[in-house]
Amino acid sequence: MGSITTGIARNTKDMYIAVAIEMFNATSFTALRSISSKLCTSDELGKMTSFFNLVEVATSMTFGPIYSMIYRYTIVIDPGIVYYVSTILTVPPLAFFVWFHMQHKKALRESRKSGVEDNFTGTELDIKKKEDHLVLNIDLDHERVIVE
């Protein structure tokens, strides 16, 4: 939404409005990291953070030059085209998110109909935490495994 507003902005006031709207887009990155950190175990948290950082750097290295090229070729037509392209590139991930959300809601409805509770947050996560605790307490002593 902020990209479209930036693309059609033709004066200073419009740009300030676009920045105010785009400000809410920045919160999505924080929310994504927060949700992802809750979905992984403590020993996978570093891997997840590394993966996010790697993707951010790769995205900057890839799309920075692409956006510059698009802007250079379309500045004569409309300087805002690069912002429209950015909005178009946001649609597929948004569609995937909506699809996953709908599948999750469908699975919840089906589990409620069959009388099965959604115990992932309880039972399976508790088992995973116990496994993590066990893995953290395994030591090697002269090629022998000692479990504390």
TrEMBL record:
UniProt keyword list: Membrane, Transmembrane, Transmembrane helix
Source lineage: Eukaryota, Metazoa, Ecdysozoa, Arthropoda, Hexapoda
Location in the cell: Membrane
Stated name of the protein: Uncharacterized protein
Chain ranges passing through the membrane: 15-32, 53-75, 81-102
Membrane topology, from the record: Multi-pass membrane protein
UniProt KW rRNA processing keyword: no
MF terms (GO), sorted A to Z: transmembrane transporter activity
Source superkingdom: Eukaryota
Main location: membrane
Keyword Membrane in record: yes
